[in-house]
UniProtKB/TrEMBL annotation:
Organism annotation: Achromobacter agilis
Span of the signal peptide: 1-31
Lineage: Bacteria, Pseudomonadati, Pseudomonadota, Betaproteobacteria, Burkholderiales
Xref: SUPFAM superfamilies: Periplasmic binding protein-like II
Domain of life per record: Bacteria
Record protein name field: Tripartite tricarboxylate transporter family receptor
Amino acid sequence: MPNIPFRSRRSCIKGIAAVVGGLAWLGSVQAQTQPDASYPSRPITIVVPHPPGGSVDGLARIFAVKLGEELKQSVIIDNRAGASGMVGAGVVARAAPDGYTLYLNASIHNINPLLYGKKMTFDAVKDFTPISGLAQGALIFSVNNDVPAKTVQEFVGVVKAAPNKYNFATTGFGSAGHLAIAQFAYEAGLSDLQVPIVLYKGGGPALTDLIGGQVHALADPMLSSLPMVKSGKIRALAVTGDKRSPLLPDVPTMREAGLKDFEFYSWYGLWAPAKLPEPILKKLDAAAQKVTTSASMKEQLENLGFESSYRNSADFAQYIQAETAKYGAIIKQANITAD
């Protein structure tokens, strides 16, 4: 063994340590910027905070199949309904941020804090990682067939003439349909007439009573309302998007029907618990992009009245913030409270 002076040996050891440390730092940086190759190594669960059969559940089941194919792993839907989606959201907020518990919901996730505030057991922003915006869908504004109105303006006229005779239905307190009805009443000049809004715990019961005439108007996602319109059981007066739906080409938008500032979409996104590791976030976001922008997924969504509206994690977070501000304005002008 060469006779290396003590100081030289110490310098050599320090040099080796520096190289090893540099390699460790480089590995750490790469781990933060590159997807974890081992993820996912077991089935993923997507919590849907609504019962089976609704628009959120329908979208989630389509997305889960495609996501599983993309990640080459099973993706399971877990319906945790209750409290306007807050039961399921609470489950996810308390879950480990390991990418194996995800959360798919609609815009109501960010409407709830505006209504329930400190009553909530979690923070809808701080306790979640926004992964991707997935899709959006206009609502159908429809009426019972016995309502003597074939257009939005005719409907406004008959309600103004007999406000005590008519009411609105909504599929859940604070839902997109609830806020769309509140916005419609405000822009149509019906707010001061105090037309009753009947709250239901889902689209099924609301549609049943709309068909039966117990309620007279409803704003509801196409997934549930479109079959009733197509079968002639209810009458569609308008859609709430900025353009006509190819599924209802003869039905005008609210803007075309005379409400110049009216545009309303229910949107859908994917979240995880807070502090999701960056490599897993990037892998899930990339997979969601491939799924939602694929031709087959777009076709499936369009057939159900949705449209693909992929937003990456950063854009989705900004979009949520802007939409929450819009919802807050509607809630304030309509004086909607949870008390």
